Amino acid sequence: MNRLSNLPKIDEFLCDYRLIEKSGGIPSKRVTEIVRSCVDSMRMTVLQGGPSGIRGELFELIMSDVLSSLSEYTSERLTSVINATGVIIHTNLGRAKLSQSCMARALLISTEYNNLELSLKTGARRNRLAYIERLLCDLTGAEAALVVNNNAAAALLASAALCAGKEIILSRGEIVEIGDSFRIADIIALSGCRIIEVGATNRTHISDYERAISPDTACIAKIHTSNYKIMGFTAAVPAVELQSLADDHGLFVLEDMGSGIMVDLRSYGLPYERTVADAIRDGVGVVTISGDKILGGPQAGIIVGKEKHIAPMKKSQLLRCLRMDKLSLAALEATLIEYTQKTPSIPVLELIGQPPDILKVRAERLKAALSVVSGLTFTVQPHTAQIGGGSLPEQSLPSWGVLVKGLHLSNNKLEAMLRSGNPPIVATLQPDGVMLNVITIPDSRIGDVVTNLLAHKPVSQAHT
Ligand SMILES: *Cc1c(COP(=O)(O)O)cnc(C)c1O
Prior knowledge:
The protein has 464 residues and is α/β, with parallel strands linked by helices. The protein has 18 helices and 18 strands. It has helices spanning 10-14, 17-22, 28-47, 55-74, 100-111, 130-140, 151-163, 184-189, 206-212, 239-248, 276-281, 307-315, 318-322, 326-338, 347-352, 356-369, 411-420, 446-455, and strands at 82-83, 87-89, 144-148, 167-171, 177-179, 182-183, 194-198, 217-223, 252-258, 286-290, 301-305, 376-382, 385-388, 391-397, 400-406, 425-426, 428-430, 433-437. A hairpin with a 2-residue loop joins strand 13 (385-388) and strand 14 (391-397). The two termini are 39 Å apart. The model is unreliable at 458-464 (pLDDT under 50). Pyridoxal-5'-phosphate is lined by residues 150-152, 176, 178, 184, 223-224, 226, 256, 258-259, 290, 301, 390.
């Protein structure tokens, strides 16, 4: 008998319920190609004397290849995860979490027609940012405001509109890499201005800036050293002093505050941290911040400052390339509207403000819920959390977590299992186990953590 006669046909796979279930999000042509390639490779195996076996066995062998290829195809698709890292604004995990009410507004605006560029009062075309600019001015005390796609775009627009062909003075201590080898100074330089570096990595003095001022100087830049802290023998010039130097020379300060704090963080149990309103009060000409860091909104770049500096940015052709879309704009409006309340209901701020004793109780609750999982041990432990997203890098938050340890499983394998589970859990690898910090795991997700761990049956995987 022909060795290949037991090889199943492609169509037999295509109508299998497991394949149908796994092929969502994959074009049907690609699904067919995946099946064909798995059948082809089995044909080669059979011809080379591999299993020609019974039909059902071959079918299952091929099907298992097909299913893993389908999973591989969709493995990089966006999905929600449980953040157990203890980092509240985690750049790899989508930064700021938005509230339901904020997204409800975005949903309403985007699934219906809306007044994005129409004034309902006059019937004429309107600037899509008209309301949000007013709100930002009132919230920060600024004369003028503008919103673009992200903070990097804000820095680019500001330097292109105000400094092209001229020089920007920047301290060597503030040449910041914001992640994935992007550097704000390099982004600013794209606008066609020259960065004049002054001072040393650890110390820059007002005299360094003063000496660098020339007829070609457009502004003095100050960039928040978001994701690192220089300690020890250091000196940096506060923005207020830079602004006063700038005033003496008819210049202005461009301050990239990074995270951009809108409220007094002391009411969340943190030390005082300069706010956007403080920068405006200091007279800083142009301030830029991110929408999706401690502000707690969607990705956005917010620019506030003096009218005379913001006006040229509004006229720049570049603005069209950097403008925000209606979805993000609706979410940002909803977020900023929260800041008109005495206690804004912003998930990022609420996560930061959780008292440690409540977190300890939650960690104990998580441990109790996990007792149904065998093959692992669970210990409640204090574990420091962080704000993240380059916000207050030296500031840690007291929190609690559950340390998970496998009886017959390495910590690396356990961490990978959690990550590939359903729902995926991103946790921190520690020398003595895998830590689930509960600061970012609400009570409502404890059941999901248990589901993830139960599905893995760690005991049966003990020696894999
Ligand atoms: C995060 C950060 C940026 C980049 O902001 P995006 O909104 O991600 O473009 C720029 N500058 C500083 C100081 C930052 O911390």
